[in-house]
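so my prof wants the structure for this chain in the tokens format not the other one, which i didnt know existed until like an hour ago. anyway here's the sequence
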Amino acid sequence: MKKQHTNKITKKIVQAAALSFLMASSTHALAETNVDHADKMEKCYGIVKKGMNDCQTKTASCAGSATKDNQKDAFIFLPKGDCEKIVGGSLTQGDDDSK
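here's what i got, hopefully its the right format
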């Protein structure tokens, strides 16, 4: 009877270890994908919709903090080359002229 109990515990330990390995492997793969993805993206200023910016502006430090549409100092990430195809899009941060 004791041997059966030990086998059940061993089986659970092996299953937990395998699951941990799979989770760690998938996390590593996602991290590599994000690094590759980041190399293909650029910040595009001046086209963001109110509250939809990706990161900080000159006046705020949080994503989603743009206070108006087309705020010149707020950006979103776009695939490289797309920003300059959009009217109002800029690769450089402008001054927020809402003051």
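also thought this was worth mentioning. The helical segments are 2-39.
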